[in-house]
Amino acid sequence: MESAMTLTSNTLVYFVALPLLSSALLLLLGRRADRWGHVLATTVAGATFVFGLIELFAMVGRDEYSRAVHQKVFTWISVGSFQVDAALLLDQLSICFVLLITGVGTLIHIYSIAYMADDPDRRRFFAYLNLFIAAMLLLVLGDSFLNLYVGWEGVGLASYLLIGFWNKKAEYATAAKKAFVANRVGDLGLSIAIMIAFAVFGTVTFKGIEEQAESASQAAMVAIGLMLLLAAAGKSAQFPLQSWLGDAMAGPTPVSALIHAATMVTAGVYLIVRSNFIFDNAPTAQFVVVLVGAITLIFGALIGMAKDDIKKALAASTMSQIGYMVLAAGLGPIGYAFAIMHLLTHGFFKAGMFLGAGSVMHGMNDEVNMRRYGGLARYMPITMVTFGLGYLAIIGVPPFAGFYSKDKIIEAAFNLGGTKGIIFGSLTLLGAVITAFYMTRVFMMTFLGKKRWSDGAHPHESPFLMWAPMVLLAVGSVASGFLLYSGKRLEYWLKPVVDKHGHSHEEFLSHTTVTTLALSAVAIGVAIAIMKYRGDVPTTAPENVSPLTKAARRDLLQDDFNEAVLMRPGQALTKVLVATDEKVIDGAVRVVAGAAVGSARGLRTIQSGYVRNYALLILLGVAVLIAAVWVITA
Predict the structure, then answer these.
(1) Mind listing the pLDDT tens digit for each residue in 543-576?
(2) Which of 48, 322, 491, 505 is the most buried (most CB within 10 A)?
(3) Distance (Å, rounded) from C-alpha 492 to C-alpha 496?
(4) ∠318-321-325 over CA atoms, to 5°?
(5) What does the alpha-carbon distance between residue 413 and residue 423 come to, in Å, rounded to a whole number?
(6) Residues 294 and 424: beta-carbon distance below 8 Å
(7) Residue 277 contacts by C-beta under 8 Å, 6 or more apart in sequence?
(8) pTM given for the model
């Protein structure tokens, strides 16, 4: 059997180079590129998608264990036995992300041409979009943790620039900084994981670590796994680093669709699945992954129920759905493929709904409060249908995409067996109930019922360049789940990467039983939402609500917790350190300096500057020496 690492390609670098060069060109040319910058950026995004399709077709034509291709770009680090190449790896896992990033990314570029048409800085916006795509592609194509880390940091930079694109508003700039800081905490975890891996294995390449993983100590593997999970939590807005995601909606809506639905927030899931050889040999870390995913899927769902801002409701939904993916990734070989399946289907229906939210805002003078919508189906039929198909997909109605991907995660959770299976399976079902409730709430408050907007609003359908990408994403919301699930297509495709040993598992609940439970959960959530929102909806949020609702409106007190546990103690510690620096360290330096200055002043008094005084001192010194010699020799 041919090794998956022996095939080489000289074209992989184009995936990163083309959008990176396009971004640099648009930024360096400045206003001279305003008229055509968006066209160049969109063309480049489309070209990378075409390259991805070409590589996919070539990959399908090879043996399943010989499909990966590798390209060394240059030698990056060469210190003794430590050798790191700037190299790219395209295999069955990374091609899924390449097509998602470039395919959905191209549609978002097209949408942005119309959405940002009146923005004077549209060219700069497209430059940042290309920069983001280049960094994200480097992240998923790097053949080592160190190469991945470069893309990881590039994605952090690009997201900061895009979230704070309208930084003339102070709250938008603050939101960008908040996202940046939260992600830096996660990045610290990734850097520590890389350092531990190098200390233990002497290499940071995926292949090199995988070959030694089974013989490594449990302590080292658990430490690496937990640090990788910390990194994933930061990038994918998972507990306890999830507080930044809602504020990140400050960026233009296409940013929310690209970063917070289809790409950046899925990077943490990619990291865990790519590091399967770490987690499979560290059961403790693997269990913590499941725990974090379970907590986050409920956490995000509860927040989503209380949000009136349509984008923040979708952001909370993203947090919850990524929680499903992380939970599945923590289940090991029985869950890796389902995590990626849900990631891919989620990329279609959530990106489509974010673009739908942008379309609604476009027709409603940038109003985001759903309590001031209502009855928009009549005025925005295309937006309503495309958004509605995404809604049916995310809640898991057959035959839409989420029905296949999310139900398989619920089934895999129950298949853990025993108490763990019952607990985590039940949590995934509870998440399905809440998801069905808050997404039905969003759909009804936006498109159904009586109109609640002011007379100054004139809702209308968006232009072709905006609704055409929404239609294509809606098609993916309908068909992607069946295409990936049918014949276990995605499972077999990913097996050489995530399940080389062919692990088997017992079936705790039958597929039919799980499907029945999941559909019942969906029906319950939808029914509750219809009963609650079928009548008139007040245009202002009621004040007399439960403590849980009040807490959910404030993101379940995430910021309060961070302020009390992290920020305030951090400020206090900083004050102590500053005082210690000023009074102890700087004080000691000042004492030494003062002693030197004082002694210098004392010595200076014997320096008169008169030659006759110096001659007299010399004469006296010679006389003293002669006297001393005379006494000694007498």
Answers:
(1) 888 888 888 888 888 888 888 877 788 888 888 8
(2) 322
(3) 8
(4) 130
(5) 9
(6) yes
(7) 206, 209, 210, 213
(8) 0.89
